[in-house]
Amino acid sequence: MTAQKITIEPVTRIEGHAKITIRMKDDGDVDHAYLHINEFRGFEKFCEGRMVDEMAYITPRICGICPVSHHLAAAKTGDVILGCPPPRPASLLRELMHMGQIVQSHGMHFFELAGPDLLLGFDCDPATRNVVGLIGANPELTLKAVNLRKFGQNIIQILGGRRVHPNFALPGGVNKALKASERDEILAGTDAAIQTTLTGLDIIKDWAKRNAEDVAKFAVLTTGYMGLVTPQNGLELYNGQVRLVDNTGAQLEKFDAANYLDIINEHVENWSYLKFPYYKKMGWPKGVYRVGPLGRLNTIDHIDTPLAQQEWLAYRAINPGKPIENTLYYHYARLIETLYAIEQVKVLLDDPDILSTDVLNTRQEVKGEGVGVIEAPRGTLYHHYHCDENKKVTKVNLIVSTGHNNWAMSEAVDSVAKTYINGNVVREGLLNRVEAAVRAHDPCLSCSTHAVGQMPIVIEMTDQQDQLIRTISRGV
Amino acid sequence: MAKPKVSSDWLAGCAGCHMSFLDIDERIVKLAELVDLRSTPITDLKTPDETGVDVGVLEGGINNTTNEEVAHTMRKRCKTLVALGDCAVFGGVPALRNFFTIEDALKRAYVETESTDSEGQIPSDPELCQPTKVRAIHEVVPVDFWLPGCPPNADQIFYVLSELAQGRKPVLKDNMLQWD
Questions:
Q1: A117 interfacial to chain B (CB closer than 8 Å)
Q2: ipTM for the complex shown
Q3: From CA A101, how far away is CA A88, in angstroms rounded?
Q4: pTM (global) more than 0.95
Q5: What residues of B are in contact with residue A395 (Cβ under 8 Å)?
Q6: Are A64 and B39 a contacting pair at CB < 8 A?
Q7: DSSP helix/strand/coil, A393
Q8: What is the DSSP letter of B77?
Q9: CB-based contacts of A303: which residues, under 8 Å, 6+ apart?
Q10: pLDDT tens readout for residues A15-29
Q11: Taking Cα atoms as reference points, which of A445, A365, A427, A388 lies closest to residue A83?
């Protein structure tokens, strides 16, 4: 029989544009599956010549799903490069906005993007395998999910005036203090948000139990893991140092963002616009690691908020003393983090400094170079700028969350393709599982392709001589 | 009567307009009653129906050859084409790239950046699209309706979609005219 290539394009229910090609062997087995990230935008170049202060407003346009990550990473970089550390209340308010973003982004991903696979099934009709299908199947739950996202978006709006691309942070702090009435409004929504998240946790635990076989064989990868941690190695999403652990969970590095170039290098493959970061001291590809919810929960020793800690302990008991490697557990980890973020909202709002009007340090001393890091919903995000004495940006380097997972996503696609697809049998639901391997990482391909770009996925089948045999197109 | 079919896609943008669309929150239930959501980035159909859709929505500008193809397909298959958000309307922030050459931008990203290792190269596999000048949608295909904003807010998006779905041309005035 003739060997084939399968193409899936676009990959849907992910943020951005990608395409998958699967090359088949002559005997009908999968030879190799590739994930092509297929857009280039060039923020690293076209930000040159802009003012440092503008970066917190230009770089969020890298990604409208987690714009707050870029907004805050740019502001943190601005704090360093302009020598203006923010007053404590400003840091608390920035973290509060960030928690709002974690809740909205994670909540949306779980229920609205991954939810259709989990709740309606991988093999459900693609015409209804979406959030509208969810409304039909379970309107009550869907509305709760919509409200969870709304809770997070509302925090962003209260602080930054709008839900997408807020106007809030700047080098040295933020432009607005929090009013008591606004604090109370946010607090009033926390209990319902926690309840919805706990419902989500029940769903994913039950799903994992019922789909134990899929979980066990679906893209189980051995890698290192990276994430921010507190000084005691607790979960941290805004401040702190970066911790890198190996595939057994042992610490390899704990470092300040400013030193990231000693730790991380990026590899380029000719077939993707998304670069492949790796641990410099181990080299490519041995030094690959994962970030985001799964990575972070493998990097830490505990979580400081009680409900999330309890869930984390139960979660880590799945593989005692070792990292959780199953890609499908990203969904589980994402909800534990959502729980943490909501609890952390309460912690922040209870802080005596949260209503302070001391929110901006206006004394600046231009340093000329700065690095800012934050845990975006999808993983560790680095901004690194140089500027001249007039605060004009001369160089920009960005390492974006999804990039760190590029190897893992590519590997996951390859591994799922090999597990589920045989040249003789190519069912639509199987193709969707290949996509789900990507979707589990919740890639933000707009982010990753700031630089790079879009995630259409196509599956084309070609032979080893690259002759197109068959294109699988769905729902047309 | 069959519900009007709506398809959407995102090109050289940030997905923020689609997020702003989701910010209609619980009104999505109402919208689902009004329209049949076909291919969109948050659903699983990959392309607009070959038999055509009533409303096509494009977010983002056109900055590569794949974007061009998607825009042409959408134009061919939809009756009314909406350019959603600043990037679609005039290029937006990504159009800043037009101040540089594409080659310089690629070189910075894949060769010169401080964290890229010594084997950096500009990706050129035939599977990848080719970057082009960044353009507004109407510079590539005819557009019927423009909704600016970065992003337009949820109320504006809901209003425009529900008017179009009911066969009316939306009129942007009063608070619907306010963006940013």
A1: no
A2: 0.94
A3: 20
A4: no
A5: 114
A6: no
A7: strand
A8: H
A9: A234, A235, A309, A312, A336, A340
A10: 556 777 888 887 778
A11: A365
